[in-house]
């Protein structure tokens, strides 16, 4: 392999071992070694890699969110509870890469992800992830598990929730109540969690009609006037997606309130997920609950499987439907 790549055997060992020593290796050299490994069909021995890596039982947690989710009010916090419990059960300590948030200012910086090599393997959180830095880590054989479905890199392991089935169940509930015009409001991006929810929304619609509205600035675009205009068009049910910020739901709920409307008397509201913990409501919201702590546990198990040289199976957890009290039949005179 060294001959094919035109480098020394020491360089090959450094590249394939993840270069934990931090020795400067030019990117072109590293790519030649990796290409030679692929050409020769090199498959690293898991046991040998563990010995070479001098494992110290540390699992990393890297978040691409705006704020690292250590606040109990953060939507990702329950995932961390599951992560911590399972890591402790398996005898691992955690390394929290808090500088990965925008508060640390280094999430998108070149080489930011390379810091996770300080741990034996790493868990990743976030709606949006940088594909190329992740691909380099995966190509190097560094153990990674993303919490949430990701298909951009086939070799990247992940655990996720079945948002398609859960979203379909929520919308089917609205349709069964008699709603025939339903609108979904979602963020204007293509995060897998959003596309899965939209797919479930469409699957649950029949025989109703539905439309999808993408918003880039929810607080500015979702206004009382917007809600009244949709109601004038015959929309009787509004559905929002849950995100880590809760921005769409916050804006929709505020717009309905500003329009002087109440759910479920004047319209029905549903949330594809759970409302933000810091936004307490008088009545429970129709939607579904994500098994966050259980997914955190599953993520640690998947990561430790990778560390043991095993490929973990896919985990797609079921979300529990929540009937809530914000949905009901359409207002009188608007039933089909």
Automatic annotation (TrEMBL):
> What InterPro entries does this protein map onto?
HTH_LacI, LacI/GalR-like_sensor, Lambda_DNA-bd_dom_sf, Peripla_BP_I
Q: Which UniProt keywords are given for this protein, alphabetically ordered?
A: DNA-binding, Repressor, Transcription, Transcription regulation
Which CDD domains would you find in this protein's record?
HTH_LacI, PBP1_LacI_sugar_binding-like
Q: Which residues form the HTH lacI-type domain?
A: 1-53
Task: Name any one GO molecular function.
Answer: DNA-binding transcription factor activity
Q: Name one Pfam family in it.
A: LacI
Q: Which PANTHER family match?
A: HTH-TYPE TRANSCRIPTIONAL REPRESSOR PURR-RELATED, LACI-RELATED TRANSCRIPTIONAL REPRESSOR
Name of the protein: LacI family transcriptional regulator
Question: What is the source species?
Answer: Streptomyces sedi
